[in-house]
Amino acid sequence: MAVQYETELYAPLKAFFEQKGYSIKSEVKHCDLVGVHPERPELLIVEIKKTFNLPLLLQGLERQKLSSEVYLAVERNRSKRGAHNQRWNEITLLCRRLGLGLIAVTHYKTKPPFIEILCSPGDQVIVPAAKVIKRRSERLLNEFHERSGDYNVGGSHGTKLVTAYREKALRMALVMRDHQGIAPREVRDASGVGNAASILRSNYYGWFIRVSHGQYALTPSGIDALSQYAEVLEGLSLIATAKSEEGS
Questions:
Q1: For residue 48, is it within any domain?
Q2: What separation, in Å, do the N-terminal and C-terminal C-alpha atoms of the chain show?
Q3: How far, in Å, CA of 82 to CA of 53, rounded?
Q4: Average pLDDT value for the chain
Q5: For residue 219, with 0-12 CB atoms within 10 Å meaning exposed, 13-18 middle and 19 or more buried, which class applies?
Q6: Kind and range of the H or E run holding 44
Q7: DSSP letter at 182?
Q8: Residues 182 and 220 in one domain
Q9: For residue 4, what pLDDT band results from cuts at 50, 70 and 90?
Q10: Which InterPro entries match (predicted)?
Q11: CATH number at residue 192
């Protein structure tokens, strides 16, 4: 059964790698799927497309600057046998030459999707893989750990992503909701966001406004954001409650 959107491939891929012990999050620093395994040093990165094409291949090569464990995941469409993007033996050989992993996802009408790893990163590499840029890899890992949960869907395009920065801004907005004016230091202490003052000054989302010297309040956009991202705020509240109970 053919899928309509790339995002339909994300859930089965996430479940597949979670069963292998990975913690999975989506759309981290433009990577469709990122995974961390407690026993493996390298980040898992999976780029998702409905069909195998050149942009996907180029994405995979770019991601090799972040990790050596990079997979390309595409749908195996049983109704398009013979199409150039379904020539699995040749595509698998190409990925092996480039040190990329390849995953085929087959959807069915009456049973769960089937995940097949056609090759793994580093399988019979003929040409050397790109060197991982440690600094960029560390930034990716930091973004992963800074996020409290998985609020995006891998493969999304043109949607507002819940990044670690947005989570911090939301935590601050929640603190500021019942105040007509509040000092950055108070926002920092109540929200736990260490760089609250910097976020207030930069006002990237237009959520904050300085109402007097050293005093900030929410704009109408900031108030709307509390409703728009209610699910994220609920998740943050649950995490805060769990941490409080652990400390008591």
A1: yes
A2: 51
A3: 15
A4: 90
A5: middle
A6: strand 44-48
A7: B
A8: yes
A9: confident
A10: DUF2161
A11: 1.10.10.10
